[in-house]
Amino acid sequence: MIQSVDRALYILDILKNNPRGLGVTEIAGRLEVAKSTAHRLLASLEEHGYVQKVGKEANYRLGLKFIEMNQVVVENLNVVELARPYLEQLSSATGEIVHLVMLDGYEIVYIDKVDNSSTIRIYSQIGRRAQLHCTGVGKAILAYYDDTRINEFIKNNDFRSYTENTITDGQALLQELKYIRESGISYDKEEHEPGIQCVAAPIKDHQNNVQYAISVTGPLTRMTQEKLKECIPKLKETVNHISRQLGYRFS
């Protein structure tokens, strides 16, 4: 029984790092078990919603159950409670929507959001996921991966295109990540949703790790180049406050 649980958990770890999914044969190889054993484990995980089959090749990837579980975990995350007053201040100061996201595998998850009075509908809502390469918050986190993880991400990522501005080339992404590390600021210029722009920045913890990021987001009609630049000092002040609360020491 314990061995089966260990194997099932290992499958979830494998799929977490392979967002495009894997077939039964490859999963069995990584587990070093018979294909029938892997299939039985996957069938059980699928029945409970932890994995799902996708695509013509019927590859397995993480299932929707994790969104439900993630919402429960998020409700108990100290960082959400800690960051909330700063998010509200930032939204009030900029007049725009502010997001807090966390890294989960090769995706980001929206874990808090402060709305403004705008009637503009934006994709995000708490619990939703998005890819790293096409969002300001995603790139803000990805930029602080080590080189090995960045290269692994580029190799495994499908670079799905959401708009005509989405980065779909690994070398172009590397150049942008270099800029983000140098400036501490990331942009989403209609890369995920047409007509929506944002400026984002990473949150660092006591180990100098980046698991969270914040963005200021709004419609193109308001989030002009001038407005984006105006938001930067307020955004940096916000992430610095939260980073200090998480134990990050500024040199």
From TrEMBL:
Domain spans labelled HTH iclR-type: 2-64
Chain segments annotated as transmembrane: none
CDD domains: HTH_ARSR (cd00090)
Organism of derivation: Bacillus carboniphilus
Keyword terms, alphabetized: DNA-binding, Transcription, Transcription regulation
UniProt superkingdom: Bacteria
Xref: InterPro entries: ArsR-like_HTH, GAF-like_dom_sf, HTH_MetabolicPath_Reg, Tscrpt_reg_IclR_C, Tscrpt_reg_IclR_N, WH-like_DNA-bd_sf, WH_DNA-bd_sf
Annotated Gene3D superfamilies: 3.30.450.40, Winged helix-like DNA-binding domain superfamily/Winged helix DNA-binding domain (1.10.10.10)
A matching Pfam family: IclR_C
PANTHER family: HELIX-TURN-HELIX TRANSCRIPTIONAL REGULATOR, ICLR FAMILY, HTH-TYPE TRANSCRIPTIONAL REGULATOR RV1719
Domain IclR-ED: 65-248
Protein name: IclR family transcriptional regulator
